[in-house]
Amino acid sequence: MAVIADRCPHIQVTVVDLNEARVAAWNDPDLTKLPVYEPGLDAVVGRCRGRNLHFSTAVELAIAAADMVFLSVNTPTKTKGVGAGQASDLRWIEASARQVAACAQGHTIVVEKSTLPVRTADTVKAILSAAQGDIAGAGAPKTFSVLSNPEFLAEGTAIPDLEAPDRVLIGGEDPAAIEALASVYGQWVPQERILRTNLWSSELSKLTANAFLAQRISSINSIAALCEATGADVNEVAHAIGTDSRIGSKFLKAGPGFGGSCFQKDILNLVYLCGHYGLHDVAAYWQSVVELNSWQQHRIARLVVQRLFGTVTGKRLAILGFAFKADTNDTREAPAIRICQDLLEEDARLAIYDPKVPEAQIAADLGCTSSSSAEGSWHSASSPAEAVADADAVLILTEWTSFAELNWQELAPLMRKPAWLFDARSIANLAAARAAGLQVWRVGSGVK
Ligand code: UGA
């Protein structure tokens, strides 16, 4: 919404939320205090806020005044009831649709921005059509058009992704509504990149795009394990296959498995949908992408234990990186969580350093406070040097650029010998680490 406001100064954009603290944070004069860390976002918000970008808790007023409403609420995986563990929880979408139905005035275009199961627009339309024709105040009768406009930005690169998207996807049935939304994006996105489809294709394309991206990561991680066993190098294999223009070079980086709020959730949702439509083999196919991802995370924890003479009980291990990827403070489904939990289960003592993730977040993710456990325990370190002091091993779990520049000549002497570097992101200067006396494991490297 901030980028729309930035690129369309003639449009008033109001972002509403029921959460007062969150809205207050978005309105904080100190732009470093925005609730989301995203490179470049502070500058965009700084340019537009108060001009044509507003953050408010006045939900009903904003809906009444709007020509277009974007439903951008979260749709987490259900934790109980029918479809628990797979289906998306649509309670907030339904509540938002009901609120729009109640408060809208005149004609309103309702845009599904949240990632949703296919045919959710049916639900939204049913709720809105129950209010169709009602007259609010002295205004015109209510009418609605529903569009699907999924978001393809990735965290960490959100602003460039939005400013120069590969494509914008608009699904709908009402040509006038589609063109109204297309004209918003048309302010800065070339026409040939604005794709128009039917509602269901648009909803399904979002899930499919994420499923394909995640599948590439599971595929390359499966090959990484084979590389380690055979003496091949996954970076060389990825380069060799990625130069085939039909395969392409992106999303072929082996690592500790994918994290983030989307991939697993969206694939599980796809699995649920396939099951719902009786396509059980298709469901099993996509389920395996998620299973391989968990396997990769457990595999890394296991091999750390094996290299450290089969036990990490009481040993200090430095964990560098907790966010699910670099350039974000987001830890949702971060591979570091599962790997740390496995090591805590083995009674290791972890010293965790991440440049952007606060200790309270790590505690929430690990389900225990820093010193709570008698056996396995963790604490947060304020620098890589503090984390590695007296450690038997250091694990790199997020690809922060600063980890590529670590000075192993300085860090290695702080560790207990024999000491290991486990580079799950293939980012560290391994030659320097070896020269400094460390034993080294890198994901997907079978070269002895
Ligand atoms: C992902 C998609 O890339 C976006 O297109 C989509 O809009 C978004 O989900 C969403 O549905 O909201 P995001 O989760 O922010 O974006 O991050 P990605 O860059 O896709 O990375 C996801 C995970 O895969 C990270 O843990 C990352 O480290 C890992 N990854 C990515 C790899 O292990 N290897 C790669 O080659 C690429």
Notes on the protein architecture:
This protein is of the alpha/beta class and 448 residues long. The protein has helices at residues 2-7, 20-26, 41-48, 59-65, 91-103, 120-131, 158-163, 175-185, 199-230, 234-242, 263-276, 280-307, 335-345, 359-366, 384-388, 401-404, 408-411, 430-435, and strands spanning 13-16, 53-56, 68-71, 107-112, 143-148, 168-172, 194-197, 316-320, 349-353, 377-380, 393-396, 420-423, 439-442. A six-stranded parallel beta sheet has the order 10-9-8-11-12-13. A five-stranded mixed beta sheet has the order 3-4-5-6-7, sandwiched between helices. A two-stranded parallel sheet has the order 1-2. The radius of gyration is 24 Å and the shape is elongated. Uridine-5'-diphosphate-glucuronic acid binds at residues 115, 151-155, 210, 213, 217, 251-253, 255, 258-260, 262-263, 324-325.
